[in-house]
Amino acid sequence: MQIYSKRNNFYFSESILHENKNLLLFGLILFTFPLLPLNQLIVGAIVNALLIKSVISFKSNKVFLLSIIPSLAVFLGGVLFASITPQILLMLPAIWISNFVLMFLTRKLIVQNKRGYFSSTLVASILKTIILFSITLILFYFGLVPLIFLTMFGVMQFITAESGVVLVYLHKKIVVKNFK
């Protein structure tokens, strides 16, 4: 089914409406999940899984907006619950960039270049971690973030990204049969 409005010359197909609805659902989950009082490894794995799944599943480039939502939730949650630190504010752009890189490379390698799932997501996870850790290291060097950030935004990011990779793979294997 297609919807066409003469008034504003705007064209929608049912598939575009369906994709936008699903993108909104992903966005809501990505916003609320980091606010739950769960272990950071679990939250990080699920957030990374949703970011990876979104770029594999959706055709729209709007999907890349999802890269900023989890860290905004953490920031706003900290503001609401008085646990935000100025250091987190410094990290927001680095988190956005690294999430975008994870998503962009995953889409580029898997969807566009038809590369293998695990090798593509490994490259994307490594690059995400390198970017985030490098920025954190620079900020640490200048005394702008505490030492614990080097672990949080280094090896932990790689672990949660790769855990997300495994979660997406298991979802496809169990729920959606015949995943390559």
Biggest sheet details:
2 strands, antiparallel
Reported by name, the CATH topology is Arp2/3 complex 21 kDa subunit ARPC3
Structural class: mainly alpha
What oligomeric state do these chains adopt? single chain
Low-confidence stretches: 1-9
Helical fraction equals: over 70%
Task: Walk across the major sheet and give the strand order.
Answer: 1-2
Number of H/I helices: 7
Q: Given the C-alpha coordinates, what overall shape results?
A: globular
Give an account of the 3D structure.
The chain is mainly α and 180 residues long. The protein has a single domain, classed as Arp2/3 complex 21 kDa subunit ARPC3 (Orthogonal Bundle), CATH 1.10.1760. The chain is 70% helix and 4% strand. The chain has seven helices and two strands; from the N terminus they run ββααααααα. The protein has a two-stranded antiparallel ribbon with strand order 1-2. The longest helix is centred in the middle third of the chain and has 27 residues, at 86-112.
